[in-house]
Specification:
heterodimer; A: about 400 residues; Rossmann fold; 2 domains; 5-stranded parallel β-sheet; 14 helices; globular; B: about 290 residues; two-stranded antiparallel ribbon
């Protein structure tokens, strides 16, 4: 009986194929819809567009390499969304994507937007891979659909403190005083609070913590305070525009600390800043998202990004690898079913990537191995200086004696 | 307490920043004084002018200060045509319509810039960007000092035009009494367009002075336009002297406030002044009682 059924089914399928060849074509290029959600307009548009570029490059690579093989070579189809730099707009896009039948979402760059989008996606059990979103609350709410591949700001700040202490100790402790300049949102304030409670434990004296709004039109005041405090180390934690104006004002006012040490953002993790202000960038140190500089896949990807007239910024490679992580989970899930993808993500051991994280291991949605690197602008290029296994060049510290 | 040297530097910084604010506010107050509308497209216009300065520098290698007359002329033409062909027609003479039209223009301009330039922040590299001038104990960035001088010159020019030319007299007449001016044979529509054009030219000048020490992206105007509104109210709606002095005052308050209370809270000083002026002297420092 069963063989007759099989025969019937197969012959029907064959008949359908002969009579309707377009179905076969559609079946072999079966696609999986993935939401690519970023703030591509509004105040965060630059970063959002960079993220989108990274996601699309990853999808291009995945599809070119034969798609998701366990699902018959299914191609990934990007469903693009714009969070308009507002959390509620991000949530609305998740609702739309859910109705549009996406299997998972990758996004949404900013912490505040990620908090909203992951929560909305959780209502539908929709897997959400967070590409950047450094606020730790994102993975601390027990959402089983939320996975962050990169480090949060607690890990970044803790590493920043370790690295700064290591640099200072190796140089014979020339630096004793610190001034922190941070932007006033969740990321800057959170980072500044963590740093000001941790650094004193290593013998650093926090001389001053200055908060500024976005945008700040003029940094001369802050630099004047800096001049009166005269700190050994200046730690900025802010976004690109304000960072650039701050360093410009420091140069103009001839304020030269022993080191400019940024946490999550800065010249030593921005090829854009390096190109626009090579003199000011020289010697600057950053603790930020960075790729494994010894991985051979980085250089060709960087070339491809630059060929598109874009900078190879952290947004690009963070979202690129987040998409790769998802593709690996799709491969192991074997279906486009959301629960299966969530389970595959939760048990991920994804290690075929160029980030310095090792094999992936999710603990409550956070990749436990995720870490930032310490980079410095040396000889007109960005070089990794800590931790040891990723070091490309010896650190220059202090910059000015 | 701060060192007097630091206070002195902060004061000079405030004055130089304030001069550029004043220039932007002069354009806004002129348009308000004559057309009796708040130009919501003012910030977007500043953004357009900044992109013009940026493109002239990047594509043709023209220094922002050399570009000044061209950008001013270009912005004048832009404002003139915008008022004649869009605002005047779509407004149908109703203030609330005109308000919405300018708001619409700002949205169109900002999104146009987003399409053309993406939201990437851009700046120009000039040989003098990092040059500083020593004044007593203060170190002042050269571009800011030039901006201060330049803003005063442009403001003086504007005063002269308003005071001594037929155009200025016509503008003042229309601002005072539109119908009377019309009866005297003044082409009111033309005066409207000229005023809008001159207001835009002021913004063009501000852009030339601003870009060497600042940056441009499609959202850049928003940060300045709120300050400019405050200055216009502070100085008296439609008053030039008020806009100039108000600009300088706001610059200094922002600078000293930032020094004492930090840059987040320092902004409070600016808006505290705004509220006090509205309470105590609603017509503004130089405004005539209505």
């Amino acid at each position: 009986m069963s063989s007759r059924r099989t025969f019937l089914r197969q012959s029907t399928a064959a008949a359908a194929l002969v009579s309707a060849p377009w179905i076969a074509r559609a079946a072999s290029s079966k696609s999986i819809k993935i939401g690519v959600l970023h703030p591509v307009t509004g105040a965060l548009a630059y970063s959002g567009q960079q993220c989108r570029l990274g996601a699309l490059l990853a999808i291009e690579d995945i599809n070119r390499a034969g798609g998701i093989k366990s699902q018959g070579g299914a191609q990934i189809e990007a469903v693009l969304g714009d969070a308009q730099s507002r959390p509620e707009a991000g949530s609305a896009e998740v609702e739309k994507m859910n109705e549009g039948g996406v299997s998972a979402i990758v996004g949404a760059y900013a912490s505040a937007i990620c908090l909203a989008t992951t929560q909305t996606a959780a209502k539908y059990g929709l897997p959400h891979v967070v590409d950047v979103g450094v606020a730790d609350q994102i993975v601390e709410r027990g959402l089983t659909n939320t996975f962050r591949f990169g480090p949060g700001y607690k890990v970044c700040s803790a590493r920043a403190v370790d690295y700064l202490n290591a640099l200072n100790t190796a140089a014979g402790k020339p630096a004793k005083t610190v001034m922190i300049v941070h932007e006033e949102s969740l990321f800057g304030t959170g980072t500044a609070n963590l740093l000001s409670s941790e650094l004193p434990k290593y013998g650093f004296e926090i001389k001053e913590v200055v908060k500024h709004p976005n945008p700040t039109r003029d940094f001369n005041n802050i630099v004047l305070r800096m001049r009166s405090v005269n700190p050994d180390i200046v730690i900025p934690a802010n976004y690109y525009n304000e960072y650039a104006l701050l360093l410009l004002a420091m140069k103009q006012q001839k304020v030269q600390p022993k080191a400019i040490f940024s946490v999550l953002g800065g010249a030593a993790s921005s090829y854009k800043f390096l190109k626009e202000y090579p003199d000011i960038a020289n010697g600057v140190i950053d603790c930020n998202h960075w790729f494994n500089p010894k991985d051979a896949r980085v250089a060709p990807l960087k070339k491809r990004v630059e060929a598109k007239n874009a900078y190879f910024s952290y947004e690009v490679f963070m979202t690129y690898t987040a998409m790769m992580l998802l593709a690996d989970a799709l491969e192991r899930a074997g279906s486009a079913d959301r629960a299966a993808i969530n389970a595959a993500l939760a048990s991920s051991t994804f290690k075929d990537h160029f980030m310095p994280y090792g094999a992936t291991h999710f603990v409550n949605g956070q990749n436990a191995g995720a870490q930032p690197l310490l980079t410095q602008v040396v000889g007109g290029d960005i070089k990794a200086i800590l931790p040891e296994p990723f070091r490309e060049t010896a650190p220059v510290f202090p910059v000015k004696s | 307490m701060f060192d007097p040297a630091i206070l002195f530097t902060a004061l000079l910084n405030g004055l130089t920043t304030g001069a550029v604010y004043a220039l932007i506010a002069l354009g806004l107050t002129l348009i308000y004084g004559v057309l009796h509308i708040i130009n919501f497209a003012h910030g977007a216009a500043l953004m357009v002018a900044l992109y013009a300065v940026y493109l002239l520098h990047e594509r043709l290698g023209i220094d922002p200060y050399v570009a000044l007359p061209f950008v001013m002329a270009g912005m004048f033409a832009f404002g003139y045509l915008l008022q004649r062909s869009v605002i005047n027609r779509a407004g149908h003479g109703k203030d609330e319509n005109i308000l919405l039209v300018t708001l619409g223009i700002s949205i169109v301009l900002e999104n146009l810039a987003l399409v053309l330039f993406h939201s990437d922040t851009r700046n120009i590299d000039t040989p003098y960007a990092l040059a500083t001038v020593q004044i007593g104990p203060a170190m002042l960035a050269l571009p800011k000092l030039i901006a201060f001088g330049g803003a005063l010159v442009v403001a003086a020019l504007l005063f002269a035009i308003m005071r001594f030319t037929d155009l200025g007299r016509a503008i003042r007449a229309v601002a005072r009494e539109k119908h009377g001016a019309k009866l005297m044979g003044i082409d009111v529509d033309k005066v409207y367009a000229m005023s809008f054009g001159i207001g835009m030219a002021c913004v063009g000048a501000a852009a030339c002075f601003l870009l060497p020490a600042y940056y441009v992206n499609p959202q850049v105007g928003g940060g300045f336009v709120l300050i400019a509104f405050t200055i216009v109210v502070l100085g008296g709606m439609g008053s030039f002297a008020g806009a100039l002095l108000g600009g300088l005052l706001i610059g200094v308050v922002e600078s000293l406030g930032g020094l004492w209370f930090g840059d987040s809270l320092g902004q409070m000083g600016v808006f505290a002044i705004f509220i006090v002026v509205l309470l105590v002297r609603p017509q503004g420092l130089f405004g005539a009682r209505v």
